[in-house]
Amino acid sequence: MIPDAPYGTLIRTRSLWGNAVRRLWRRLDLRVCLLVIALFTAAALWGEVVYWRYRLRDQTPPYNRVDMSRAYRPPSPWSRPFARAVEALGPRASRFAILRKGIANLFEHPLGTDNLGRDVAQRLIQGARIAFQVGIITSLIAIPIGVILGLIAGYFGGWVDDLIVWIYSTVASMPGLLFILAIAMVAGKGLKGVYLGIGLMTWTGLCRLIRAEVIKHRDRPYVTAARTLGAGPVRIMFRHILPNVFHLVIISFSLRFPSAIGTEVFMSFLGIGVQGEPSWGIMISNARLRLWHGMWWEMTAVTVAVFVVVLAFNLAGDGLRDALDPRLRTGDTP
Amino acid sequence: MPILEIESLSIHFRIGPLWNRILLRAVDDVSLGVEEGESLGLVGESGSGKTTLGRAIMGLIPPVAGRIRFRGWEVRALSDRALRSFRREVQMVFQNPFESLNPRMTILAALEEALALQGVKGRRARRERVGELLAHVGLLPAHAARYPHEFSGGQRQRIGIARALAVQPRLLILDEPVSSLDVSVQGQILDLLKKLRQEMGLTYLFIAHDLAVVRSVCERVAVLYLGRLMEVGPAAEVFRQPAHPYTEALLRAVPDLDSSEPPHAVVKGEAPSVRAIPNGCPFHPRCPRARFRCAHERPGWERVAPGRWSACHFAGEVFDCAGASPVIRG
Predict the structure, then answer these.
(1) b/e code A140-152 from CB counts within 10 Å (16+ = b)
(2) Which of B168, B194, B212 is at the close of a domain?
(3) In B, residues 124-183, which contact A (CB 8 Å cutoff)?
(4) In this structure, are B129 and B264 located in the same domain?
(5) Cα–Cα distance, A197 to A207 (Å, whole number)
(6) Which residues of chain B have pLDDT under 70?
(7) Could you tell me if B206 and B229 lie in one domain?
(8) Nearest 5 degrees, angle CA A13-CA A19-CA A20?
(9) Positive/negative CA dihedral, A310, A314, A320, A321
(10) More confident residue, A91 or B227
């Protein structure tokens, strides 16, 4: 019926995501953000490796080793590394030996030690593990709930919508901390409860956003066109509407990372979070008590780390949203 | 036997808040037949129910009364399976090509999905078919990897047509396919539609408000006003010698370059809202020929010539009068 194509049937596809990442990489500021996120992820993975290594051997990991003789040491660059090398080796030692010792001193505790003589740098890297876990696991719980309920509510409308709106309004009206505490009680002390609590508490915002956006999209002609072609509701929701509202998920993900870290900090502060492992929350609550002993370095290190990671996630999320929007695409690489 | 039969179809919506529900008669008692292979134009002002009628035929809006039969199948009563094969035979081209394509899908993905939904197996086969379809509507197969926003309006409408044709339908419902395009592009799309109809033996239900467009594409025309059918007949004859005052008014409102006299307003006022359709003949408040009877009695169908029907009490009179001074020359 239809004649052969007069032109060569050459068809190439470029993936939206591949393009988005390429375009992110082209911007220097976003490249730095991606690098920070990669470093953060690497630190978290490294922390995971270290944690399991010592756990399986049933040893105390170095970041938990208490050594009161080293307590309250400021970051090495501030503690006269070369002068101490001379003191330790005596004036007769060769310059080379002094230099070596001095450099070793310089990197002994690059961020100092805390009140129990534990190395702050090690604990900071180890804390990235918990922060990462909290961000990822709570997102894995909250985002699917928010997305699926939001899609269903927005697409079907009617009593389904009413029901879902009622559910999320109810959840959102509960005091978050109480809810998390209650879940933590049920799930037992430790991180499991914190993850579940934060995850089950924080899907409402995303759900509301997705629902509102889906309502805007569901009567758009492209959805009607899909319907006339015989696409079912699941296909329309996930293949047609979801890609058009996905930037909300990206932004929500990048914004919930910092807030999840913040909540974890608070939970640890209250003593229902992580036990026995260093997390940024525990470090902050610990450092807060020592600030007036003159121990400024632990607080500084953790605060800077949280700030940098949160900023990187926010900027990268924003950039990714722009990169994913086909209407904003300019100068595509073929 | 007509390929599509619409029998006293009514579509009503209840709108407004609960305490003030209004019954909106979008389509009221419309009967129409479309013969296989013909091109029927559905003409009317905005709000006359053209699009609603088109969507009802697609099975997107349930009618409150009447029936739509496509090749003998009752559209409302189709099972899921039958609906699928029905959609393989009836497809729709939408008015706004900027809105009717998913901005997040490449052309390839959009067309491939249409094929996959209608059971074309195998990625390779589908891709080849996409290339064919694009070439068929005058685009390059290399365009397939692009997103809709990279195309102009006319090109997008070509893509919309390709998507509708992907399933090899028999009946194409064209919902104002050119009204949002530039005039120069309109001509190209209309030529494409004419060419496709000849090549593929399609039947068109062409919804439009532009009479010139309808005249160039359609053999038969049906005039809709406030959800009711006013006149049905062969396009050339209806345009030369209308048998309904409303059609006459529509035609006289078309500006004429040859004529020295300015286009005069033939009808008074604007079309009333569909929320409050006048009693009797819905056109009587604006009709220059209205008499006492028009306000109280709803006119039935009157046959003024072979194949020509008019819903006017004085159809014959209008017809004869228009015959004496043709509305459109040539």
Answers:
(1) ebbbebbbbbbbb
(2) B212
(3) 127-128, 130-136, 140-142, 144-145, 147, 149, 160, 163, 167-168
(4) no
(5) 17
(6) 255-268, 323-330
(7) no
(8) 140
(9) positive
(10) B227
Look at residue A8 and give its three-state secondary structure: coil
Does B90 share its domain with B236?
Answer: no
| Of B193, B212, B231, the domain-final residue | B212
Nearest CB to A229; choose among B99, B114, B140: B114
Better-predicted residue by pLDDT, A240 or A328: A240
Q: Which of residues 38 through 57 in chain B touch A, CB cutoff 8 A?
A: 55
Domain span at residue B272?
219-330
Q: So what's the ipTM on this one?
A: 0.83
Q: What is the pLDDT of residues A19-75, one digit of tens each?
A: 777 777 888 888 999 899 999 999 999 999 999 999 899 888 888 888 888 888 888
Report all structural domains of chain A as residue ranges with CATH numbers, in order of start: 16-71+114-328 (1.10.3720.10), 76-109 (no CATH)
Beta bridge mates, B14: B23
A328 touches chain B (CB under 8 A): no
**Distance, CA of A177 to CA of A202 (rounded, Å):** 11
Q: How far is B118 from chain A (nearest CA, A)?
A: 8
Q: Which two tokens stand for residue B255?
A: 């500006």
- B204 and B225 co-located in one domain: no
